């Protein structure tokens, strides 16, 4: 018991067979791009079922979809490409685990590992796509690339619609949401803002200490790049540059920005894996637990709890973004003493 009235934990560990909410965004955006390319050739926008029925394979098999990823978005893109029958090239950075790379290769993607960090892999994917005529389906936006990430974010709203129903339309007082480039955080912010207006919950962005580009941007009042290795256990949040589209929303919609200590990550994963006080066990990967870890840390610090307006009446919404997307690493972390 951490002294709040209620915690809703939206568990995305079993989303399709990809074990991440990202499955909702990347594959959907791939479908949208393929519909557009078929329409350019035929003059008619095909239905998704027409693509799944392989009616346009002669067009689609010539197309190459590409992106950079920490793992989960690329897996969703690769899955979409496999379903719809086009080619896929995924760029990963030096710290992406072998298991996550193999998961994308198992879906038919060609995986290219670079020696730089995540932000450098985004730039490499974009540069190669322009040179080789590939279609970038990224979950981050940057100058000259703004439209496709909107489709990715639109895919995420499926889980938010589910959440509203599962909470019986009760409004949380607080949302603790992982940062990264800001894509899912901005989707949550915009969705709840549009739905509830002034009654919307307080939005608290949570980031790793060494990859806190949103927090630093908030301090500066404009997008800031965090340099360096971006070293964190929370691999899906190892981002040094904010998404421009996401920042446009979060700069006015986010209320607070927190970082979490790396030591809290395996401890929170273990808490969920064991089940707490009769709760069912939850499979939560490294990047899934940032929000809950931040809540627990804040409640153990009266000054932070007061600053965040947390008390015994608080109702908390937390998005558990992934399950064991690297099963071996997951087992190591939940077994750590």
Question: Can you give keywords for this protein?
Answer:
337 residues, alpha/beta, Rossmann fold, 2 domains, 5-stranded parallel beta sheet, 4-stranded parallel beta sheet, 9 strands, globular
Can you put this structure into words, describing what you see?
With 337 residues, the protein is an alpha/beta fold. The protein folds into two domains: 6-19 and 150-335, Rossmann fold (3-Layer(aba) Sandwich), CATH 3.40.50.1100; 23-138, Rossmann fold (3-Layer(aba) Sandwich). The chain has helices at 23-42, 48-52, 57-60, 72-84, 98-105, 118-132, 148-166, 183-196, 213-220, 244-253, 264-274, 290-299, 302-307, 327-335, and strands at 6-11, 64-69, 87-92, 110-113, 135-136, 174-178, 202-208, 256-260, 315-320. The strands form two sheets. Strands 1-9-6-7-8 form a five-stranded parallel beta sheet. It has a four-stranded parallel beta sheet with strand order 4-3-2-5, with helices on both faces. Strand 2, helix 4 (72-84) and strand 3 form a beta-alpha-beta unit. Helix 1 runs parallel beside helix 4 (72-84). The longest helix is centred in the N-terminal third of the chain and has 20 residues, at 23-42. The radius of gyration is 20 Å and the shape is globular. The model has no long low-confidence stretch (mean pLDDT 96).
Largest sheet: 5 strands, parallel
Extended strand count: 9
Fraction of helical residues: 40-55%
Query: Structural class of the secondary elements?
Result: alpha/beta
Counting H and I runs of at least 4 residues, what is the number of helices?
A: 14
Mean pLDDT: 96
Q: State the end-to-end CA separation.
A: 22 Å
The largest sheet has its strands arranged as: 1-9-6-7-8
Order of helices and strands: EHHHEHEHEHEHEHEHHEHHHEH
- What CATH calls the topology of the largest domain is Rossmann fold
Strand content: 5-15%
């Amino acid at each position: 018991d951490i002294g709040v009235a209620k915690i809703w934990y939206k568990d995305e560990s079993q989303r399709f067979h990809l074990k991440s909410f990202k499955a909702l965004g990347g594959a959907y955006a791939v479908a949208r791009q393929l519909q557009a390319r078929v329409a350019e050739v035929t003059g008619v926008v095909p239905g998704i079922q027409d693509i799944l029925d392989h009616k346009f394979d002669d067009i689609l098999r010539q197309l190459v979809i590409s992106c950079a990823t920490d793992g989960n978005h690329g897996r969703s893109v690769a899955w979409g490409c496999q379903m719809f029958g086009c080619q896929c090239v995924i760029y990963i950075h030096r710290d992406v685990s072998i298991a996550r790379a193999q998961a994308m290769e198992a879906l038919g993607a060609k995986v290219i590992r670079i020696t730089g960090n995540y932000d450098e892999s985004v730039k490499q994917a974009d540069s190669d796509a322009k040179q080789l005529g590939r279609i970038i389906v990224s979950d981050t936006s940057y100058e000259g690339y703004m439209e496709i990430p909107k489709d990715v974010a639109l895919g995420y709203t499926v889980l938010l619609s589910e959440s509203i129903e599962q909470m019986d339309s009760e409004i949380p007082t607080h949302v603790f949401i992982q940062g990264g480039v800001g894509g899912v955080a901005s989707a949550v912010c915009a969705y709840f803002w549009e739905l509830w207006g002034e009654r919307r919950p307080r939005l608290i962005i949570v980031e790793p200490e060494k990859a806190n580009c949103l927090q630093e941007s908030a301090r500066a009042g404009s997008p800031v790049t965090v340099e360096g290795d971006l070293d964190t256990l929370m691999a899906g949040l190892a981002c040094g540059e904010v998404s421009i589209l996401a920042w446009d929303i979060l700069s006015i919609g986010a209320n607070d920005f927190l970082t979490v200590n790396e030591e809290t990550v395996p401890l929170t994963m273990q808490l969920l894996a064991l089940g707490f006080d009769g709760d069912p066990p939850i499979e939560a990967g490294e990047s899934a637990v940032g929000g809950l870890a931040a809540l627990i840390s804040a409640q153990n610090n009266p000054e932070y709890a007061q600053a965040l307006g947390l008390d015994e009446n608080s109702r908390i919404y937390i998005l558990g973004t992934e399950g064991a997307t690297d099963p071996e690493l997951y087992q190591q972390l939940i077994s750590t003493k």
